[in-house]
Amino acid sequence: xxxxxxxxxxxxxxxxxxxxxxxxxxxxxxxxxxxxxxxxxxxxxxxxxxxxxxxxxxxxxxxxxxxxxxxxxxxxxxxxxxxxxxxxxxxxxxxxxxxxxxxxxxxxxxxxxxxxxxxxxxxxxxxxxxxxxxxxxxxxxxxxxxxxxxxxxxxxxxxxxxxxxxxxxxxxxxxxxxxxxxxxxxxxxxxxxxxxxxxxxxxxxxxxxxxxxxxxxxxxxxxxxxxxxxxxxxxxxxxxxxxxxxxxxxxxxxxxxxxxxxxxxxxxxxxxxxxxxxxxxxxxxxxxxxxxxxxxxxxxxxxxxxxxxxxxxxxxxxxxxxxxxxxxxxxxxxxxxxxxxxxxxxxxxxxxxxxxxxxxxxxxxxxxx
Length: 369
Hints:
about 375 residues, 6-stranded mixed beta sheet, alpha/beta, about 35% helix, Rossmann fold
C-alpha cells in the first residue's frame, strides 16, 4: 500500500509540474505582450464652465475611447504628480533687445514650478562657420530640478541673428526627451515655448517636428509674442538697410502660398518690392499662427498670445498654473495592430458638474514595428 502511494505521487508530480510550467509560460507571454504594446498616455485639463480647473477628480470620473471603442484605463495620475518641462526661449529678431526681460520671465517661470518638477532650457545663439554667421539652437541645461543649475543656464542665454525654430522643436524630442520617462513622469512632459513661431534658418521643416512631438506625446504650450509690427516697420524701403527674409523663408512662401500661381519667383530679397515683402510677411505670420494652434490643440496644450515681452511674465504664470492642474490617463490599446495608422482619442467625464470642459490629446499614431 505504501508503494502504491509513492507510485501515484510519482505519476502526478510530472503532470503538476507541466501544469505550473504552462501557467508560467502563459503569464510570461502576457507580460511580454503587455511590455511590447505601447502605453498610450493622455494628459488632460478639466475646467468648469467658467474656466476654473476642476481638481480632486478620480480615475472613475474618466472614460476613454479610441476610434469609438472603450478602453480600459490602467494608469491615472493626479494633478499633484510632477512634470518635465522643456523651456524653449526664442532670442532672435526683435526679441534681441529684450534679452534681460526674457531672462527674468524665464527665471520667474522656473521659480513658480513645484517641487519635483524638472526643467530643461533651450535657446538660440549665433555661431560662425567657414563662410558666415549662422543661428543654432542649443540645449543649455538638461532636465533637472536643481534651481541653481537652471538659474545659471538662464544667465548664459545669448541672442541670434536668425530663428532655427523647427530645429529647436526637434531638439526637444531628440535631446531633451530622448529617453523614456520614469513612471511618475509618463504622460507628463511638456514643451513651453516663448516665440513668434516664424522660422528663418532651420534645416528641418515643421511637418517633421510635428510628427516627432506627437509621437512622443509631448504637450505643447506657446507664449506667442507678436513681433509682426516691429518686423514690418523695418522690412520696407532700402533693401540694404531693411530687415531681410532668409532665402528659406522666401522659398517657403512660394512653395506653400504661390505654388500654382503664374508669377515670377525670386530668391534674392532685394528683388522683392514693398508689396511682395508685406505679402510674404503676412503669409509667414499666418503660417506660424496656424502651426502653433495645430500643435497645441492636437497635444492638449494651449497658445497664450502676448502683445510684447512685457506680458510674458504673466503668460508664464498661466502656463505654470495649468501644468499644476493636469491629470494624466494611460491605457493599453485594444487595437494591437502595429500598422502606423492615426487613432482618435475621445474622453468622457462622469460625475462632474454640468458644463465641465475637457482639453486633451486628440490622438496618436500607432507604432509600425
